[in-house]
Design a protein that fits this description.
Number of strands: 13
Distance between the termini: 37 Å
Number of helices: 4
Largest sheet: 8 strands, mixed
Radius of gyration: 17 Å
Shape: globular
CATH architecture: Alpha-Beta Complex
CATH topology: Nucleoside Triphosphate Pyrophosphohydrolase
Structural class: alpha+beta
Order of helices and strands: EHEEEEHEEEEHEEEEH
Number of domains: 1
């Protein structure tokens, strides 16, 4: 990628929380089952995405991309997320969905998301049941992202690409679809007021795996797309 100027660097954890959306109702657990999600995407409601276009950070040409929202069918649905490596030019170290830029050989956004998920984390297509897509989300770095929502059958073995993925983990979908965990932030950057959401998640303590106690700081585009999923499921 060629940026006209370096991307702004700041620690989002240091930005004060303006408010928490605990006044909004969470998505009922009975709506967060594989069959309920199949039915919702089969007959979607009338709804409006809350987050669509971020304020631009650069003057680079827009690029199409797609991400996969892989919902693993465990006793409770979980969302599989990645932590990006620190060497990446854009969004390094951030929590993200598997996905990336569209290739000319991709048939559509679904094909992009599935290909990228296999390349990034080794998720086999045979384990993935695509439910549908959410409206596009345009990042401040001019990526026009199509979120692809899918159910994932357990039993897969993941192989993260060490050049892109530092870690892979799962978060309960019910936690992310509860606005009591959605926090609002705002700051002025380069003379522009920017607003975003964060959804920090800390795994329960695990005596075997010390990483399990780490906070996963979900924010930015990832949180914005999850907020749109919340709006879609609660409509």
């Amino acid at each position: 990628m060629n940026f006209s100027k370096p991307l702004p660097v700041f620690d989002p954890r240091s930005i004060p929380v303006l408010g928490v959306d605990d006044h909004l109702a969470g998505v009922a657990l009975e709506r967060l089952t594989p069959q309920a999600l199949r039915e919702r995407f089969r007959a979607p409601p009338v709804w409006t995405p809350e987050h669509s276009v971020e304020k631009k950070f650069s003057n680079r040409q827009p690029a199409l991309a797609a991400v996969l929202l892989p919902l693993v069918m465990r006793d409770e649905l979980t969302l599989l997320l990645t932590e990006r490596t620190l060497n990446l030019r854009a969004h390094s170290g951030q929590i993200a969905f598997p996905g990336g830029r569209t290739d000319e050989s991709d048939v559509d956004a679904v094909d992009t998301a599935l290909r990228e998920a296999h390349e990034e984390i080794g998720l086999p297509r045979a384990h993935v049941e695509v439910l549908g897509t959410l409206p596009t989300y345009v990042t401040g770095t001019a990526f026009i992202i199509t979120p692809v929502v899918a159910l994932v059958k357990p039993g897969f073995e993941l192989q993260p690409n060490p050049g892109e993925v530092a870690d892979i983990f799962e978060v309960p979908l019910g936690y992310l679809m509860n606005p009591a965990h959605h926090r609002r932030h705002e700051m002025e950057l380069d003379g522009v007021i920017r607003q975003w959401l964060s959804m920090p998640y800390t795994h329960p303590l695990d005596e075997i795996d010390s990483r399990a106690a780490r906070e996963r700081y979900i924010w930015g585009a990832t949180a914005g797309i999850l907020r749109n999923l919340y709006r879609f499921l609660s409509a």
